Amino acid sequence: MREQGWQPSGACLEGTFDEEAQWALARDLMELEGVDVDALTLARTEHPFTDAVASGHAFIASHVHATDVASNVFSMLHEGGHALYEQGVDPAYDYTCLRGGTSMGMHEAQSRFFENVVGRSDAFAGPLLQCMARRFPEQLGGVEAHDLWLAVNRVEPSLVRTEADELTYPLHVIVRYEIERLLFSGEATAADVPGLWAERYRDYLGVEVPDDTHGALQDTHWACGSLGYFPTYALGSAYAAQLKDAMVDQGVDFEGTVAEGRLAPVRDWLRDNVWRHGRSRDSARIIADACGAPFDASHYTRYLTEKFGDIYGL
Predict the structure, then answer these.
(1) What predicted TM-score, i.e. pTM, was given to this entire model?
(2) Which of 26, 147, 189, 217 shows the greatest Cβ crowding within 10 Å of its Cβ?
(3) Active-site annotation holder among 3, 31, 33, 79
């Protein structure tokens, strides 16, 4: 048992990481993940996103922070999951209504799968560290893979959803979901949002919101009219856990292939069971066909319980 209040150290990720070297690392991560970089445009923006016009090309826009290399790493793995989905759709669906991901929940399942189920796994810490240390040998050359794994899974309530740890992340989604319900029902107006936001972040995460930049204006979704989008991140995380269990049950050596940085078997399973169908099947059918059972959120709750129980000795 760990002592109460014990936290993994994040010291190995502290310091300054050259921004241009981080952009080079971003492309390295896409290659490690298996994105077809010859069919990819990588651009810069404030809020990361991915899109595609056909299976033959995708583009990712992201950002880097000199003092937060982990932000770049997991943003790229997340967006790379989206790109893999778009590139994996059957080309026969290009330029038709069946092109692209079938739902935002299934799309976020792919991004959260590669960001967390793969990217923050103990097995992947070795390949990930090797990739990062090639660009930053001075900062990371002496770091152990296990220490990196602990650092990227440190649980600590925070203000910004996109930078949140995997365990508290759903609380960020719940805040947005509850506010959207109040807006839809007419019980709140846009003017009420900052106050509702601050109240819920205090109640659910125990943090004080200093300003709207770190509060209700941190995401672009509502400004773009994407109301109802945020729950798909939590739903996608739950889909991802069930898909991982299914591929393991069907013979994919997930731990072994991920530990070798050889993700082709994982991608092949997802391509065969999810990506290639585009919008020709809805998410419920994809899950049922791929997993042999309907959607079941217990895969996700078990995944979180086992993972963080292991890390924190609970």
Answers:
(1) 0.95
(2) 26
(3) 79
